[in-house]
Write a structure and sequence with these properties.
TIM Barrel; eight-stranded parallel sheet; 22 strands; five-stranded antiparallel sheet; 16 helices; 3 domains; Immunoglobulin-like; binds 1-O-alpha-D-glucopyranosyl-D-fructose; binds calcium ion; alpha/beta; globular
């Protein structure tokens, strides 16, 4: 396994709108992030992934970009971002930014010119005279009529997010220029948004019938994807000491290995979605009861299939996902399940990603009133569900559990009325649990989740086996305990996690030393509710 800094580092994701507001307009911003660098440093993280801060009409809160080489006024200025890079590098934290190039905003100059069929921009997007039947992630239909051009355009996401035509070499040159622009400013890499959707079958044939995303066979990990990524790598990425993580939807380990095999020079790692579907049926809105096996099976599969070839990302949360305690843990055992989940995921092979607030065990906002929600996906799915005949109550139940706004509320810095986030009116309501769950109270508690995260990060630096070691399941079919072994030539670790709220019989491993534990006391012969232990043994 080749050694790389981005394999050894721990990434912390910032969703800037809700991290820290420095000027009291109610919106988090770049100067706010700079204020919190000491906090990030004390956690021990090495890399920050910053969700989009570029100019945008904010229909999808920054994932709809109207100028890739400028910063949204509400987030700050180019000088602020330069300062952020400098201040982070001073304390040896690297910065990766979001590269959203499957689509632009409909307010981007390219789209405006494409609508008017201006010169080379005419074919910058996907246009058709007839409506194609593809489905969209955020709307019922992915092709929408444009009155000015008198043609349909493709948007796999919201109407304001038209898809770029990657078959056009001018588009690819423009994307390279964006990447170069930011790498030249000193950033250390990119998280590449829905990158396995960029290549399409440009004949745009109708899709075969499907409940969700009709037509996906014409753009999901299309063969040209590899060609385009290799080209970006050859012409830009390979010239810098940077790393790339691709967000890849509906991806399997075979494609992931193609994308991340170092020999092929495409990406360095990918986000897959299998394990976070442990409480859903294909589509996140068809919620089902969580069962441990549905988490264990995909995680184990990805560990085994990528070992020695590609490279995994390790995550349970991000700005698109509800909080993991609500999904896979227990609100009654918040400390125990938060720390157990962190142990379970971050001791696997791959690069850890922590999402803001996860390190203090934040739980879902769970707003009861539809009016409180701001997310385009949530609001659209409500309308769609109602049109399909689902009751208001049924739709709200789904939204309260799955909405992206669950994890997009202002970071809870303290238990005051404004959470230490702003003195103004926040752009979205505070998480109703802010009084009990916040950085201040967590750090004062003897059961601090933050301190447990610090511990994990420290151990990762001491024991290379955590980063590069092999993975083996232990007692794979156990439906209550998730246990696995990590090993290399010199060291063995055994990780054991109780996923229930009961005592489960467990035989102590007397031959090993416990190096991490989320309970003060061992209970002889059993694991306590949501207990997690990491055992260590020197092999030679
Ligand atoms: O997400 C892509 C993606 O697959 C999501 O649409 C996902 O299915 C959904 O959010 C689950 O709730 C990326 C970004 O992470 C997301 O924030 C953007 O909205 C989306 O792309 C469009 O750019
Ligand atoms: Ca602000």
């Amino acid at each position: 396994m080749r050694k790389e800094w981005y394999k050894e580092g721990v990434v912390y994701q910032i969703w800037p709108r809700s991290f820290k507001d420095s000027n009291n307009d109610g919106i988090g911003d770049i100067p706010g992030i700079i204020e919190k660098i000491p906090y990030l440093k004390s956690l021990g993280i090495d890399i920050i992934w910053l969700s989009p801060v570029y100019k945008s009409p904010m229909e999808d809160f920054g994932y709809d970009i109207s100028d890739y080489k400028d910063i949204a006024t509400e987030f700050g200025t180019m000088d602020d971002i330069k300062r952020l890079i400098k201040e982070l590098h001073k304390v040896k934290i690297k910065l990766i930014m979001d590269l959203v190039v499957n689509h632009t905003s409909h307010e981007h100059e390219w789209f405006k010119k494409s609508v008017k069929r201006e010169g080379k921009y005419t074919d910058y997007y996907h246009w058709e005279d007839k409506k194609v039947n593809w489905g969209s992630f955020f709307e019922k239909e992915a092709w929408t009529y444009n009155e000015d051009r008198k043609q349909y355009y493709l948007h796999l996401f919201a109407k304001g997010q038209p898809d770029l035509n990657w078959d056009n070499p001018d588009v690819r040159e423009d994307v390279k220029s964006i990447i170069k622009f930011w790498l030249d400013l000193g950033i250390d890499g990119f998280r590449c948004d829905v990158i396995n959707l960029i290549a399409k079958n440009n004949a745009h044939p109708n899709g075969k019938s499907a409940l969700f995303l009709r037509g996906k066979e014409h753009y999901l990990s299309h063969p040209n994807l590899h060609k385009y990524l290799h080209e970006l790598n050859r012409d830009v990425f390979s010239k810098y000491d940077c790393f790339t993580v691709g967000e890849t939807v509906f991806v399997n380990p075979q494609v992931a290995n193609l994308l991340t095999n170092p020999e092929r020079k495409e990406l360095d790692m990918v986000f897959q979605f299998d394990h976070i579907a442990a409480d859903a049926r294909v589509v996140k809105w068809f919620i089902k009861k969580f069962k441990l096996m549905n988490l264990k099976k995909p995680l184990s599969k990805w560990q085994n299939k990528l070992n020695g070839k590609g490279w995994n990302t390790l995550y349970l949360e991000n700005h698109d996902q509800p909080r993991s305690i609500n999904r896979f843990g227990s609100l009654d055992y918040r400390y125990e399940s938060a720390t157990m989940l962190a142990t379970m995921i971050y001791f696997q092979q791959g690069t850890p990603f922590i999402y803001q607030g996860q390190e203090i065990g934040t739980i879902n906002a769970g707003f009861k009133d539809l009016k409180t929600y701001k997310d385009v996906e949530t609001l659209n799915i409500y309308d769609l569900g109602r049109k399909l005949g689902f009751s208001h109550k049924r739709m709200m139940k789904k939204i309260i559990y799955m909405s992206r706004d669950n994890s997009r509320t202002p970071m809870q810095w303290n238990g005051n009325k404004n959470c230490g986030f702003t003195d103004g009116k926040p752009w979205i309501d505070y998480n109703p649990h802010s009084k009990e769950i916040n950085v201040d109270s967590d750090q004062k508690s003897d059961k601090s989740i933050f301190k447990f995260y610090q511990e994990i990060i420290k151990l990762r630096k001491i024991h290379p086996v955590i980063v590069y070691g092999h993975y083996n399941d232990i007692d794979f079919h156990n439906k209550q305990i998730y246990s696995y072994r990590r090993y290399d030539k010199t060291t063995e670790l055994i990780i054991v996690c109780n996923f229930t709220d009961k005592d489960i019989p467990y035989e102590e491993r007397k031959t090993h030393q416990v190096i991490l534990h989320n309970y003060q006391e061992h209970k002889e012969g059993s694991l306590q509710p949501y207990e997690a232990r990491v055992y260590y043994k020197k092999l030679s």
